[in-house]
Amino acid sequence: MIFTVVVSWPVRAVVSVVSGWEAMAIFVLVHLTGPQVCPPTATRSTTTPAVEDYPFTRTHIKATGEPRPEAADAFWTAADRAKASPAWRYREIATNHMIASNRPEKLTGLLLELA
Question: Dihedral sign, CA of 7, 23, 81, 79?
Fold first, then answer.
């Protein structure tokens, strides 16, 4: 199966995808579409359960190629939360955020371990 994804923001990108690479196409699409802005008139539910309350397993894979910054950031905060929680499995891969591109063998091994 071959399909094409065309994205217009912030740059035009065309990604042709062959069966087996759908996840990468979705990753590219999500990261090239820009921030999703919630309109000021939209309401947000405050009764949504925490992800830990759902009946499925969860794993956090932290890319550790960049050193921890002095000021707290979202990536390390999420990693610390997952690492400290018994509801999460926590793994690290020594690379930057592009784990699937930079360390595919390591990621594949980790996913097979978790399956």
Answer: negative
For the stretch 39-85, pLDDT in tens is 555 555 556 777 788 888 899 999 999 889 999 888 899 999 999 99
CA distance 103 to 94: 9
Question: Is the distance from CB of 83 to CB of 60 less than 8 angstroms?
Answer: yes
CA distance between the termini of the chain: 25
Q: Among candidates 60, 99, 57, which has minimal Cα distance to 78?
A: 60
The span from the CA of 109 to the CA of 115, in Å, is 10
19-33, pLDDT tens digit by residue?
Answer: 445 556 655 665 565
What whole-number distance in Å separates Cα of residue 38 and Cα of residue 43?
Answer: 9
